[in-house]
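We treat protein structure as text, and this decision shapes the records that our systems exchange. Such a record has a labelled line for the sequence and another for the backbone structure tokens. The record that follows is passed on verbatim for readers who wish to inspect the format:
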Amino acid sequence: HCISSAASDVYKRQPVELVGTNVIGVLCFKDIVMLERACGSKKSHQLFRELLLHTAPIELHSYYHNKIYILSWFEKRQCRINSLFIHLPGVLCYLPNLKVDFFDLEINFATNLDYLKPLQDDYIGSKVRSIYINENKNQDVIEQLSVYTWNVKKLDLNNSFCSIDWLSVDILSRWKLEEICIYHGIITNPLILLIVQTCKELTSIELNCTIDDDVVITITQHCPKLETLLLKSRNITWTSLLALSERGLPLKELKMTRIPTLLHS
């Protein structure tokens, strides 16, 4: 009751938008639920519900992202979530009215074309920000996924379990990639050339896999907006450093497994 009364007093003295941002927006989910339970009357409870409608999007702890009962709480109260990491197939199919600013999707081996149907809704498909693929996928699934999710900014590939022979110009050109991460396996120059020539807005590239100098040189030639470059490979030499220094890229962050040295004869 004390919490409810305090919230009511703040609500009366400040605009709803300000109260929502400064009070509800900075609380964790557990505290928000406790605040709701503290409402001692129907009037204060209604006030709390109205407050939720105007608050800033809630930052939901990753532990809660796949908890149906928690997501249902947000759906019933029309309370917005800042971002939601979900697996396909997953809860996306069962909560059509959930208000989420951004979705981050992980695609697993069981995902087929039927599971992509919720993404046909523009409200959902247009809000997919990141896609994580860590298992072998059917070409048709990825092709259709790219049609529904045209605002994707980040692509994350685990090449140890995932063959990326499905990657094509058509798929890449539908997305608006600014970041790409590839883990494990071997990345050839033709593959990286396909990526950087198609994705002109790349600002971050992370390659935690086997590459050579040709791959790095190709990146320097085709990524004029690159700000972050992570290279975890023991096969690159001082030639890569020389190429990076000569191009004058707007790099803010460069990470390497080791610093190649120029050996004097």
